[in-house]
Automatic annotation (TrEMBL):
Signal sequence bounds: none
Pfam families: Methyltransf_25
CDD domains named in the record: AdoMet_MTases
Region span, Disordered: 1-37
A GO BP entry: methylation
Database matches in InterPro entries: Methyltransf_25 (IPR041698), SAM-dependent_MTases_sf (IPR029063), TPMT (IPR008854)
Superkingdom: Bacteria
Highest classification ranks of the organism: Bacteria, Bacillati, Actinomycetota, Actinomycetes, Mycobacteriales
GO molecular function: S-adenosylmethionine-dependent methyltransferase activity
Protein name: Methyltransferase family protein
Amino acid sequence: MPAGEAPRGRPPTSHERQSGQPWDASYRDGPAPWDIDEPQPAVVRLAEAEAFAGPVLDAGCGTGDNGLYLAARGLPVVGIDVAETAVAIANRRAADHGLDATFTVGDALDLRPLGRQFRTVLDCGLFHTFDATERRVYVASLAGVVEPGATVHILCFSDVGPAPGPHPVSRAELAQPFASDARWQVVAIEPETLRTRFSDASPAWSATVRRARG
Ligand SMILES: C[S@@+](CC[C@H](N)C(=O)[O-])C[C@H]1O[C@@H](n2cnc3c(N)ncnc32)[C@H](O)[C@@H]1O
């Protein structure tokens, strides 16, 4: 990282190198731009369509807006994030509401320490923070923690339309890291929107990826 503070115990991600700040810094001085204090409407739409089965991994969980919503719907949830401050907030919120959700500090690029398997992964806003090399590592990391037949839902800013988010991803870039492992099937990549504190509807993708049963 060119300046600022280095993250503890892991190499900085491409985003941290670019910004010169660890992810945790985003959470220290009030809400981050993506911290909307409620679940993403796109996550609510998925949940109402019964797209989640527990246990759910919320990868890059932040302060838990989405994971806590899924836990409140009765799903066991584990969240992971590199930002200690966000994880502490998420755990406090889970305890305050008596929800079956555990949030842990960890790196989605190496999920092995979780030591368990998930039936659904939610990635809301993490994939688009990674560069192409990290995305390949991330997808391999996911392969180690999903049950056969599991589903991965990725919500990320897209390159479609005006004023996309800060890290727009093309449809091809979204599918690409899954292409080298035949046990992944990209079932759908549909246009969606993501809400931030500055925009009600930034252009996004909702990708559904399935892990083979065999
Ligand atoms: C745009 S925020 C989205 C947070 C949350 N999912 C939401 O929708 O509010 C991206 C999150 O990914 C986390 N993150 C970035 N790199 C990570 C990594 N390698 N492993 C785990 N979390 C990471 C950041 O700390 C941040 O909380």
